[in-house]
Amino acid sequence: MRIAFFEIEDWEIPYATNNLRLTTNDSVKFFERKLDKDNLPQERDFDIISVFVGSCVDKDVINAFPNLKLITTRSTGFDHIDLTSAQEKNISVAYVPGYGDNTVAEFAFGLILTLSRKIYEAYDRLRETGSFSSEGLRGFDLAGKTIGIIGTGRIGCHMIKIANGFNMNVIAYDAFPKEELCQQLGFKYVLLDELLANSDIISLHIPYLPSTHHLINANNVSKIKPGAIIINTARGAVLETDALINGLNSGIIAGAGLDVLEEEGFLGDEKSFVLNDKEEGHNLKTVIQNHVLIDMPNVIITPHNAFNTQEALQRIIDTDIENIKNFAEKNKPAYPVARQ
Questions:
Q1: Domain locations in the chain?
Q2: Are strands 253-258 and 92-94 parallel, antiparallel or unpaired?
Q3: What span, in angstroms and rounded, lies between the C-alpha atoms of 252 and 245?
Q4: At what angle do helices 101-116 and 119-129 cross, to 10 degrees?
């Protein structure tokens, strides 16, 4: 089989090559750049392609690889892959179901602490002015506060464990609640509106699906407990940007910690999009709103970095290799994405 990796780091190249155990009839190519319809390689006769979250494997990309049999993504989310087009061509899609249960949860709590104790504001003031004054930097304890976890998958469950360590009260919402977890981890399930109304901190840990698009939106943002802070380390589009800004401006939401944004791909490459007239299909209002969020003093934004530890990346590449080897041997990846 011919295999291509995109968005690959230098250290991953020898590791993947050694662990794939290629035969003389197999070959593998590595590309540092992302894969999308504007960044197609000259060679396209690959049976398997492996991508990361910066790539966009849409219908045009899928059609550009005539021999394609498997798409693997080195991520838990797979909304950057056109599953319908892949299924129409009988192409399997695989993902990494769990690599950063603790990794992402730890980062989310880092955002919580940054907001609750005004850590960045204190650091930035000291660096810029040299002032040791603590005026205006009063925060609040996490102990005794209620945290609402939206999504009780692997990462959500780890969030609950950490929250218990801070002596927080934990409530959760999940479209498919697992009641046995309540007794194991010490929390209770509630309806979404009840979670919004009672949480001092709301943290999102759900995949991006049609059913979760703008789960927090203009219709329910007013139901959020006044003064709550919201954390999103999941996917940008589960939180409606317009609703978030309105909530922040009205004071309903006291602060936000965001590792993901709607239109974050556009935000990272604005110059290229403008120069090459690639704005079709993008919400330019949301792009402008992202800049508004970046400038807000009570908003912390990081560049989709919650996954980024050496340990997590090692687990990701190991699982990706497992998907590829399993497909080569059994014509089925170890962790296939269920057909939609």
A1: 2-99+310-330, 101-301
A2: unpaired
A3: 10
A4: 60
Portion of the chain with pLDDT greater than 90, in percent:
84
Phi, then psi, of 91 in degrees rounded to 5:
-100, 125
Q: Please give the class, per CATH, of domain 101-301.
A: alpha beta
What's the rounded Cα separation, in Å, for the pair 332 and 22? 17
Would 2-99+310-330 and 101-301 be classified into the same CATH topology? yes
Q: Residue 48's closest CA among 3, 95, 93?
A: 3
Tell whether the model's pLDDT for residue 275 goes beyond 50. no
Report helix, strand or coil for 206.
coil
Q: Which residues are catalytic?
A: 235, 270, 304
Q: Which pLDDT score, from 0 to 100, does residue 338 have?
A: 84
Here the tokens at position 264 are 């974050």
Query: Which two structure tokens, joined as six digits, stand for 15?
Result: 């590791």
Kindly report, residue by residue over 96-117, the tens digit of the pLDDT: 988 889 999 999 999 999 999 9
What is the CATH number that goes with domain 2-99+310-330?
3.40.50.720
